[in-house]
Amino acid sequence: MANIRILLAEDHKITRQGLRSLLDNQPDMEVIAEAEDGRTAVRLVRELSPDVVIMDVSMPELNGIEATRQIIGEFGGVKVIALSMHSDSLFVTEMLRSGASGYLLKDCAFEELARAIRAVTAGKVFLSPTISGVVVDDYLHRLTRTESSDSQLLTDREREVLQLLAEGKSTKQIALKLYISVKTVETHRRQIMNKLDIYSVAELTKYAIRKGLTSLEK
Prior knowledge:
Blueprint: E1 4-9, H1 13-24, E2 29-35, H2 38-48, E3 52-56, H3 64-74, E4 79-84, H4 89-98, E5 102-105, H5 110-121, E6 126-127, H6 129-143, H7 156-166, H8 171-178, H9 182-196, H10 201-210
Parallel strand pairs: 1-2, 1-3, 3-4, 4-5, 5-6
Helix pairs in contact: 2-3, 3-4, 4-6, 7-9, 7-10, 8-9
């Protein structure tokens, strides 16, 4: 039986190294690549087609929620497990909506992560027991709501631009990062503000933090 091929997406190098060592010691798993941000994770999934991505939720430039949305949208067969310090139901719900099959807290035991990897590979959903109760209740409640959330009004590209704006990147820096023109960035920024009815970067930053698109804790 072939090993489960794993991609680690985590912006803290020491955490990646520790996880890689533990995972490579499992008889049925192998880490095939590491990514320090969401954008690199998406690119490596395209190049390497891993079975499972261990995804940190809060990463710079492209967060785990948006990276997961792009990966699942393009490669439905890849399983994503969120690994985060955030137990807030907002982060969990958004990761599940983006297509993640699992969500674990970073203080979990390694054995729990190994079980999660095997579970999602078998087509199951795996949530940390410490958060599963409130998360399931909240997730089901949100799924029954018929109205769209305001963040869903934004396109994938607009959410990327919003995160970079919230992280203090200039228009020129965003253009270089996303390989688009300054004029296009300005158009996205104007559309984001119009859609959200928010007209200052400070308020956009607060909005992005509330929606889990970025975190000032890192």
